[in-house]
Structure prediction request, 459 residues.
Amino acid sequence: MDIDSLRPHLSPTASINFATDAEFHTNTERWSTYKPPTPGAVVNVATEEDISATIKWAITNNVQFLARSGAHGSTFTFSALSQAGIVINLRFMNKVTVDLANSKATISAGAITSEVLTAAHAAGAHVATGQCNAVGAITAYLGGGLGNQKAMYGLGVDNMLEARLVTATGDVVVVSEMENKELWWGLRGAGHNFGIVSQLTVKAYEQVNRGLHWSGTLGYPGATENVGKIVGAINTLGFGQGKPMGCTMVWARAPPDFQPMVLVNVWYGGSASLAETTFAPLLSLGPFLNTAAPTPYPGVNSVNDFPSIKDGSKRMIFGTSHFSINPETIVNVFTDWETFTRETPDASHSIVLTEYYDAAKEAEVDIDETAYPWRGRNVYMLAVGQFTDMAYEGKVQEWGARFKSLLVKEEERTVYVNFATGDEDLEMVYGGKERLDRLRALKAKWDPNGAFSYYNAIK
Ligand SMILES: Cc1cc2nc3c(=O)[nH]c(=O)nc-3n(C[C@H](O)[C@H](O)[C@H](O)COP(=O)(O)OP(=O)(O)OC[C@H]3O[C@@H](n4cnc5c(N)ncnc54)[C@H](O)[C@@H]3O)c2cc1C
Prediction:
């Protein structure tokens, strides 16, 4: 590819790396190395004009391209981007501006979640984000936007006010309730399909409890009887009743002896005394580890940092979403995870996350308001198969298939687009035929040649 012809069109701070450059690895590194994209070059853009110029150059030169922000996207279809293609690395466009007086924050294309929390806190504000610091902030919004704070502010998509979108032609359009209204619907739930969002404006709020939340980890031995009790206790906390709370149960084998453990990362948007009353059913089970404490807002996601690190592992994800889930079902899934990770040493770091959110606030918004189809669900389950040797690919796939079928019959299965494996029926991802057809019409209008088609693409 003649990428030198792009250089004159880029801003002075933009750069281009090839595989032989020292920076290439950092600027293309991904959370999962399973079937990754294998670009021939990476363009590190610094401005919206750089994104636009790069897309125009790519179209003219018939070069495939893939945007990258937090690099946690993990559907295996990324591998369709080959050496002949480029990555448009947005990570250097990470500015976040918070204007609390006008109740809004502006997030640049490649900012990650921790950068939004830090900027919001500095301005004395809260902004609804995902709950993993290293994940791209805008990309989480575009799929729906799950995070503990949705108990207070609704889904990420309910907090979007306006997007600047660089389209498949390289032109820039404003998308909002007032402009390009149908695209605004599609962007909020299927937003990775239509262009690169160079800037997203979202709602900002006054902080609760002066920005001091309650968060930490409760640890329990990973015995089957504990899992049933823990899930039973979580089911009594009152998810769906509009409480400012969330928790994520994680099954992992932890050093030094790699015995199974159940960790519950808890969060409450308020005082420690209210939190401890709310979480009493879990605390009374006597966790051997309890780090829950008042935590300044920028630190609320730290408990979720360990599953997010980029360590060169191959990872496959398998997701489901639910209104509620009963202890017996989860115990069966736990038993299968325990057996799989014990009998498959190369995949022993595989984990299962069960994310509980309060969905009362998001349920106030009509289901047809946005393209996000799974509004009102309180529980999202995500199995992460982690391995190093491709010889175990089949074993991990089989475990993922069992995980899904133990949880829910195929015809009733639904998956959050940001947790999709990449081989699901699109109706299962985008919410049935009618919604999918509406999205197909948008795709035909805004991306007729499928330039943005590496990530659960609408076809
Ligand atoms: C460990 C982990 C934790 C997670 N936690 C959460 C969570 O708390 N809440 C939640 O909702 N989701 C969560 N997710 C899912 C996450 O939102 C998706 O994986 C998301 O796609 C990752 O975005 P990224 O920027 O990190 O990845 P990338 O791989 O950089 O991007 C994912 C896709 O979006 C495209 N893209 C990147 N930037 C832009 C842009 N500015 N405009 C348009 N398209 C763009 C890319 O081309 C790619 O197709 C998590 C995932 C993982 C692996």
Summary: The chain has a mean pLDDT of 96. The chain has three domains: 3-89, 96-207, 212-419. Residues 327-343 form the longest helix (17 residues). The chain is about 25% helix and 25% strand.
